[in-house]
Amino acid sequence: EPEVTQTPSHQVTQMGQEVILRCVPISNHLYFYWYRQILGQKVEFLVSFYNNEISEKSEIFDDQFSVERPDGSNFTLKIRSTKLEDSAMYFCASSDFYEQYFGPGTRLTVT
Amino acid sequence: GESVGLHLPTLSVQEGDNSIINCAYSNSASDYFIWYKQESGKGPQFIIDIRSNMDKRQGQRVTVLLNKTVKHLSLQIAATQPGDSAVYFCAEIAGDTGRRALTFGSGTRLQVQP
After folding, report:
1. What is the pLDDT, as a whole number, of residue B6?
2. DSSP readout, chain A?
3. Is B70 an 8 Å CB contact of chain A?
4. Which of A3, B12, B37, B75 has a 20 to 30 A CA-CA distance from B46?
Protein backbone atom coordinates (compact mmCIF):
# COMPACT_ATOMS: atom_id res chain seq x y z
CA GLU A 1 0.00 0.00 0.00
CA PRO A 2 1.48 3.38 -0.95
CA GLU A 3 2.39 5.64 1.94
CA VAL A 4 3.85 9.03 2.71
CA THR A 5 7.42 8.89 3.99
CA GLN A 6 9.35 11.52 5.92
CA THR A 7 12.99 12.07 6.80
CA PRO A 8 14.59 12.47 9.22
CA SER A 9 12.50 10.92 11.97
CA HIS A 10 14.16 13.16 14.54
CA GLN A 11 16.07 16.39 14.02
CA VAL A 12 17.84 18.29 16.76
CA THR A 13 19.00 21.79 15.96
CA GLN A 14 20.17 24.91 17.71
CA MET A 15 18.08 28.05 17.85
CA GLY A 16 18.73 30.24 14.82
CA GLN A 17 19.78 27.39 12.56
CA GLU A 18 18.04 26.43 9.34
CA VAL A 19 16.37 23.05 9.01
CA ILE A 20 14.88 21.24 6.04
CA LEU A 21 12.31 18.54 6.60
CA ARG A 22 11.72 16.14 3.74
CA CYS A 23 8.70 14.23 2.56
CA VAL A 24 7.91 11.88 -0.27
CA PRO A 25 4.14 12.07 -0.92
CA ILE A 26 2.09 9.28 -2.46
CA SER A 27 3.07 9.23 -6.10
CA ASN A 28 -0.23 9.97 -7.85
CA HIS A 29 -1.37 12.63 -5.38
CA LEU A 30 -1.61 16.24 -6.46
CA TYR A 31 -2.06 18.10 -3.17
CA PHE A 32 0.62 18.29 -0.50
CA TYR A 33 0.46 19.61 3.03
CA TRP A 34 2.48 20.31 6.12
CA TYR A 35 0.99 20.18 9.60
CA ARG A 36 2.57 20.37 13.01
CA GLN A 37 1.70 19.06 16.45
CA ILE A 38 3.23 20.60 19.53
CA LEU A 39 3.45 18.05 22.34
CA GLY A 40 0.13 17.78 24.11
CA GLN A 41 -1.75 19.85 21.55
CA LYS A 42 -3.82 19.15 18.49
CA VAL A 43 -2.59 18.91 14.93
CA GLU A 44 -2.38 22.33 13.25
CA PHE A 45 -2.37 23.14 9.55
CA LEU A 46 0.63 25.01 8.17
CA VAL A 47 0.45 25.06 4.38
CA SER A 48 -0.97 23.34 1.33
CA PHE A 49 0.70 23.11 -2.07
CA TYR A 50 -0.80 22.40 -5.46
CA ASN A 51 0.43 22.81 -9.01
CA ASN A 52 3.84 24.01 -7.81
CA GLU A 53 2.55 26.81 -5.66
CA ILE A 54 1.17 27.46 -2.22
CA SER A 55 -2.61 27.26 -2.32
CA GLU A 56 -3.31 28.01 1.31
CA LYS A 57 -1.36 28.83 4.46
CA SER A 58 -2.10 29.47 8.10
CA GLU A 59 -0.97 32.30 10.35
CA ILE A 60 1.75 30.02 11.70
CA PHE A 61 3.36 29.84 8.26
CA ASP A 62 5.22 33.13 8.37
CA ASP A 63 8.27 34.33 6.44
CA GLN A 64 10.51 31.93 8.34
CA PHE A 65 8.84 29.01 6.58
CA SER A 66 9.01 27.95 2.97
CA VAL A 67 8.04 24.90 0.96
CA GLU A 68 9.40 23.47 -2.22
CA ARG A 69 8.90 20.56 -4.55
CA PRO A 70 12.42 20.34 -5.92
CA ASP A 71 11.75 17.33 -8.13
CA GLY A 72 8.93 15.00 -9.05
CA SER A 73 8.92 13.13 -5.78
CA ASN A 74 10.12 15.24 -2.86
CA PHE A 75 8.29 17.93 -0.92
CA THR A 76 10.26 19.95 1.61
CA LEU A 77 9.58 22.33 4.48
CA LYS A 78 12.33 24.78 5.35
CA ILE A 79 12.52 26.79 8.55
CA ARG A 80 15.11 29.51 8.06
CA SER A 81 15.93 30.49 11.61
CA THR A 82 14.49 28.10 14.14
CA LYS A 83 13.03 29.24 17.43
CA LEU A 84 12.45 27.26 20.58
CA GLU A 85 8.71 27.32 19.93
CA ASP A 86 9.22 25.54 16.59
CA SER A 87 9.85 22.35 18.55
CA ALA A 88 7.08 19.99 17.47
CA MET A 89 6.19 16.98 15.36
CA TYR A 90 5.91 17.99 11.71
CA PHE A 91 3.66 15.90 9.52
CA CYS A 92 3.55 15.84 5.77
CA ALA A 93 0.33 14.74 4.08
CA SER A 94 -0.84 14.24 0.53
CA SER A 95 -4.16 13.77 -1.21
CA ASP A 96 -5.63 13.35 -4.64
CA PHE A 97 -8.70 15.23 -3.51
CA TYR A 98 -9.95 15.58 0.08
CA GLU A 99 -8.78 12.34 1.69
CA GLN A 100 -5.42 13.24 3.21
CA TYR A 101 -2.85 10.62 4.14
CA PHE A 102 -0.20 11.48 6.68
CA GLY A 103 3.42 10.48 7.03
CA PRO A 104 4.97 9.28 10.29
CA GLY A 105 6.31 12.73 11.14
CA THR A 106 9.61 14.38 11.95
CA ARG A 107 10.23 15.32 15.54
CA LEU A 108 12.01 18.67 15.55
CA THR A 109 13.78 19.66 18.76
CA VAL A 110 15.19 23.17 18.94
CA THR A 111 17.67 23.75 21.76
CA GLY B 1 3.35 11.77 16.77
CA GLU B 2 2.50 11.84 20.41
CA SER B 3 -0.66 13.52 21.41
CA VAL B 4 0.00 13.11 25.08
CA GLY B 5 -2.47 15.66 26.23
CA LEU B 6 -2.86 15.87 29.99
CA HIS B 7 -6.38 17.05 29.40
CA LEU B 8 -7.46 14.63 26.68
CA PRO B 9 -10.83 13.07 27.44
CA THR B 10 -10.44 9.33 27.82
CA LEU B 11 -12.86 6.57 26.92
CA SER B 12 -12.13 3.26 28.56
CA VAL B 13 -13.91 0.17 27.21
CA GLN B 14 -13.68 -3.57 27.56
CA GLU B 15 -12.42 -5.63 24.66
CA GLY B 16 -15.36 -6.73 22.55
CA ASP B 17 -17.60 -3.83 23.55
CA ASN B 18 -18.68 -1.13 21.12
CA SER B 19 -17.07 2.31 21.43
CA ILE B 20 -18.58 5.67 20.61
CA ILE B 21 -16.32 8.69 20.28
CA ASN B 22 -17.91 12.10 19.89
CA CYS B 23 -16.82 15.35 18.31
CA ALA B 24 -18.43 18.77 18.12
CA TYR B 25 -17.51 21.12 15.32
CA SER B 26 -18.18 24.81 15.10
CA ASN B 27 -17.92 25.77 11.44
CA SER B 28 -21.31 25.40 9.79
CA ALA B 29 -19.58 25.80 6.41
CA SER B 30 -17.66 22.56 6.93
CA ASP B 31 -18.79 20.00 4.40
CA TYR B 32 -16.28 17.20 4.71
CA PHE B 33 -15.25 15.34 7.84
CA ILE B 34 -12.61 12.73 8.58
CA TRP B 35 -11.81 10.58 11.57
CA TYR B 36 -8.14 9.87 12.24
CA LYS B 37 -6.48 7.45 14.62
CA GLN B 38 -3.10 8.35 16.09
CA GLU B 39 -0.99 5.79 17.87
CA SER B 40 1.94 6.85 19.99
CA GLY B 41 4.90 7.86 17.85
CA LYS B 42 2.98 7.73 14.58
CA GLY B 43 1.19 10.09 12.25
CA PRO B 44 -2.59 10.37 12.00
CA GLN B 45 -4.05 7.38 10.21
CA PHE B 46 -7.16 7.82 8.06
CA ILE B 47 -10.13 5.80 9.32
CA ILE B 48 -13.27 7.01 7.58
CA ASP B 49 -14.72 10.13 6.04
CA ILE B 50 -18.16 11.55 5.39
CA ARG B 51 -19.52 14.40 3.30
CA SER B 52 -22.15 16.79 4.55
CA ASN B 53 -24.78 15.43 2.17
CA MET B 54 -24.77 12.18 4.16
CA ASP B 55 -25.68 11.44 7.77
CA LYS B 56 -24.15 7.99 8.08
CA ARG B 57 -21.34 6.06 6.51
CA GLN B 58 -20.09 2.58 7.36
CA GLY B 59 -16.70 1.01 6.98
CA GLN B 60 -15.15 -2.12 8.32
CA ARG B 61 -16.12 -2.20 12.03
CA VAL B 62 -16.53 1.59 12.01
CA THR B 63 -19.49 3.86 11.44
CA VAL B 64 -19.50 7.64 11.29
CA LEU B 65 -22.65 9.60 12.07
CA LEU B 66 -23.09 13.25 11.18
CA ASN B 67 -25.72 15.52 12.70
CA LYS B 68 -25.47 18.87 10.97
CA THR B 69 -28.31 20.36 12.98
CA VAL B 70 -26.28 20.26 16.18
CA LYS B 71 -22.87 20.16 14.47
CA HIS B 72 -21.96 16.80 15.93
CA LEU B 73 -19.94 13.92 14.59
CA SER B 74 -19.48 10.50 16.13
CA LEU B 75 -17.34 7.46 15.44
CA GLN B 76 -18.63 4.07 16.41
CA ILE B 77 -16.22 1.16 16.63
CA ALA B 78 -17.79 -2.28 16.81
CA ALA B 79 -16.22 -5.10 18.83
CA THR B 80 -13.38 -2.93 20.06
CA GLN B 81 -9.97 -4.61 20.10
CA PRO B 82 -6.77 -3.81 22.02
CA GLY B 83 -5.26 -2.61 18.74
CA ASP B 84 -7.88 0.13 18.65
CA SER B 85 -6.25 1.82 21.63
CA ALA B 86 -5.09 5.22 20.38
CA VAL B 87 -6.07 8.88 20.26
CA TYR B 88 -8.89 9.63 17.84
CA PHE B 89 -9.29 13.00 16.15
CA CYS B 90 -12.08 14.36 14.07
CA ALA B 91 -11.11 16.83 11.35
CA GLU B 92 -13.16 19.05 9.06
CA ILE B 93 -12.79 21.00 5.83
CA ALA B 94 -14.91 23.83 4.52
CA GLY B 95 -14.44 22.52 1.01
CA ASP B 96 -16.96 24.62 -0.78
CA THR B 97 -14.63 27.57 -0.37
CA GLY B 98 -11.92 25.69 -2.22
CA ARG B 99 -9.96 25.12 0.94
CA ARG B 100 -8.18 21.88 1.69
CA ALA B 101 -6.79 22.63 5.15
CA LEU B 102 -7.96 20.22 7.80
CA THR B 103 -9.05 21.67 11.13
CA PHE B 104 -8.50 19.08 13.82
CA GLY B 105 -10.40 18.60 17.03
CA SER B 106 -8.70 18.08 20.37
CA GLY B 107 -8.85 14.29 20.36
CA THR B 108 -10.16 11.50 22.56
CA ARG B 109 -7.98 8.78 24.00
CA LEU B 110 -9.49 5.30 23.66
CA GLN B 111 -8.21 2.70 26.10
CA VAL B 112 -9.26 -0.88 25.50
CA GLN B 113 -9.07 -3.14 28.51
CA PRO B 114 -8.38 -6.81 27.66
Report:
1. 44
2. ----EEE-SEEEE-TT--EEEEEE--TT--EEEEEEE-TTS--EEEEEEETTEEEEE-TT--TTEEEE--SSS-EEEEESS--GGG-EEEEEEEESSS--EE---EEEEE-
3. no
4. B12
